[in-house]
Amino acid sequence: MVTESVSARIDYLQRCGAAADLPVATSHTCGDPTSRRLLLVRGISRPPRDPRTAASGERENWRPPTTELITGLYGYRIPLVYLVQSTSAGVEVSLGVWPTVPTVDPARQDGRLNVVDSVLRGLYPAIDLAPHTAPRQRHRHGAIAVGVPAPSGVDERDGATPIDRIIRSMAGSEWSLLVLAQPLAEHAIITEREAILNEMRTVMSAAKNEAAPSPLTEHYIELLKVALEATGMGMATGAWRVGIYLLGDGDSHPRLSSGWRSVMSGPKSLPEPVRTVDINGVDELARLWALPTTPGAPAPGLYRRPFEFQTLLASTQLAKCFHLPELETPGFRVSPAPTFSVSRPQPNDSVPAIDIGQIMNQRRPSALNYRVELDQLTRHTFIAGLTGAGKTNTLMHLLTQAASAGVPFLVIEPAKTEYRELLGHKAIGNDVRVFTVGREHVAPLRLNPLEVAPGVDVSTHLDLLKAVFTASFALWVPLPQVLEQCLVEIYTERGWDFGSSNHPPLDGSGQPPTPRLRDLVAAVERTVPSLGYKHESTQEITASLTTRLNALRRGGRGLMLDIERSIPMAEILRKPTVIELESLGDDADKAFVMGLLLIRLYEHRRAAHAAATSTAARAGAPPPAPADCATSSWSKKHTDYWDQNASRPMRGRQIPRAPSSTPSARCCRRYGPTGKASWLPTKSPCDLPPMF
Fold this sequence. Notes:
- Residues 44-63, 613-633, 647-667 are annotated as: Disordered.
- Residues 356-591 form the Helicase HerA central domain.
- InterPro entries: HerA_central, P-loop_NTPase, T4SS_component.
- This is FtsK/SpoIIIE family protein.
- The protein is an alpha/beta fold.
- It has three domains: 29-48 and 60-186 and 239-296 and 312-335, Vanillyl-alcohol Oxidase, Chain A, domain 3, CATH 3.40.462; 354-445 and 567-692, Rossmann fold (3-Layer(aba) Sandwich); 450-566, Helicase, Ruva Protein, domain 3.
- Helices cover 36% and strands 18% of the residues.
- It is built from 19 helices and 20 strands.
- The chain has helices at residues 3-13, 56-60, 66-74, 106-123, 162-169, 186-210, 215-237, 252-264, 282-288, 315-319, 391-404, 458-473, 479-493, 517-527, 535-551, 555-561, 569-572, 587-618, 662-669, and strands at 28-29, 37-46, 80-87, 90-97, 126-132, 141-146, 175-183, 239-248, 275-278, 291-292, 311-314, 333-336, 353-361, 364-373, 381-384, 409-413, 433-436, 577-580, 638-642, 676-682.
- α3 (66-74) runs antiparallel to α4.
- The longest helix is centred in the last third of the chain and has 32 residues, at 587-618.
- The chain starts with a helix and ends in a 10-residue tail after the last strand.
- The model is unreliable at 51-57 and 627-661 (pLDDT under 50).
């Protein structure tokens, strides 16, 4: 075969030479603009990338997730559109369907878009999609891109895909990329394959007749084999007639065309290398979403390309330039996709349970509710989330569900008053009680820190009380030891026995004699001088303790704390209760009151559990279970809410405040055997005390 003839065939196959002009009267493949359907992709979620460097072989075999989308939609012959528009506000990435005939049923187009939506949601752990009408951008310059895209794949350095690299190279510019893909019928693929085979037979026969080696002919045969292989892939996964339009202004258009060719070209861009051709009227074609039907230029051989301004690509080839970004950019969000359990055994219908909410699968609500047995409420619960994430709403839902099932709760609210909204709840509002600590004119609380509840060991109460004082007010050595001695004295004076833990005889009110804060102040004033400290140290210790204790006796705090009898904890826990600490301006006072409530809570439940165990032993019955859900006595269980953030009232000062939660944390840690639990909402697990 004459060398010039083979060279001309290669040039034709690879689109070498000057590009043809777009005929003025050419026909187009396009449809009614109202039948266009687009989905705006606002972001995706993906699993964390493997930190290990990808091998070069993996880059060459890169398979974009959209390959499955394109392959699947070819089965239904659904035309696809891929649109990327960049403005000063960011990038918009859209996928959808487009009409290739003048009249299309709108309902059919809606159904096609639903298919695209469904497949996309299956390709990514989570994807943010919204119906979209692409704003019309006018561009003065445009080009048509042809050839087989063969980019290098994902960059192992930063995970950038080809489209990411194009977007990054065009930062700050206004430009558009439009890819229109029309599925080819199988008979068109067969016709293409037969044309390639006939060309191969002709060239091979001519070379055989010449009986002389011809490297150029062999090269041409290899290019035809690549084209033949592509038709085989098209038969297997689908073949598309693809028109690619690159649009921009005088500055962005040359950059976009150059960037497209540099990114999309590769060793496998065969038999047609990637080229960009500047043609007048491209902007109008993009506006119409039209594919010119201009047939390929006359060929020097038997093979003639079917279209002059489009390229025939298999689904796998089309996906190389039809995929979503993997890197975040203004207008397109990329977030990690952690994996959570979405399936758990459902509680038996005979077991009381509450609904927590709907299970989210890939950030989409499912039809399955997450149900928890009531006996599981005795487990501690950690609720984490940023500001505004819904920690309070989650807790309020849990509390209303629990109260509706007969489980009372105690909410200790240090900073806000949101939980009083439960008073208006139609199911539990009539039973909810709210105490406003520090606001005597609303719903005051009475709480004597020194009162020892029935069944509680006085030594245990003294230790917990000292820990609360020390943690809340940052007492320095030897203040805690002096305070402890004063506490021992005032209890001993009233007949409390620390050795046997026996309570003293009851007074006229039927209660054991109980000291008050004023008694503790008096004990400090008379005890400290007898301890043998220097005069200056004695004055400092006395002033430090009495000043802090007297501060608790003034104003509303005094009316609440400097009393003889507290509201019994059994009464507080009898119904759903909210205790608000918002009116206490000093964070140290809030921590102190929270500590008092939690140790009284702990003591009450321990004493009740010990009494039940003793009663069972006397009756010869087995000891009660820590969380006895077989009975209906739910009124004896409760759930406690504690805002850990407010339990560190002096964070940032020189004195470390982490220990302020230690006595409370210790009490919460020991709740298990008593049939109660703590629900702890916080913004960060780091805020949890070490004992958790």
